[in-house]
Amino acid sequence: MMRKFDYAKSAANLLTPEIVRMLTAIHEYKGRQDLFIEANSDELNTLLEVAMIQSTGASNRIEGIYTSDRRLEELVHEKAEPHNRSEEEIAGYREVLATIHESYEYMIPRPNLILQLHRDLYSFSGKDRGGSYKNADNVIAETDFEGHQHARFIPVPAFQTADTMEVMCNQFIESWNEELADPLLLIPMFILDFLCIHPFNDGNGRMSRLLTLLLLYRAGYIVGKYISMEMLIEKTKEIYYEVLQKSSTGWHNNENSYEPFVRYYLGILLKAYHEFEDRVEHLTNRKLSKPERIVQIIDQHVGRITKKEIMERCPDISKTTVERTLTELVKNGKIKKVGSGRATAYVWL
Question: I want to staple 272 with a disulfide (CB 3.0 to 4.6 A). Which of 64, 204, 227, 292 is the partner?
Answer without folding.
Answer: 227
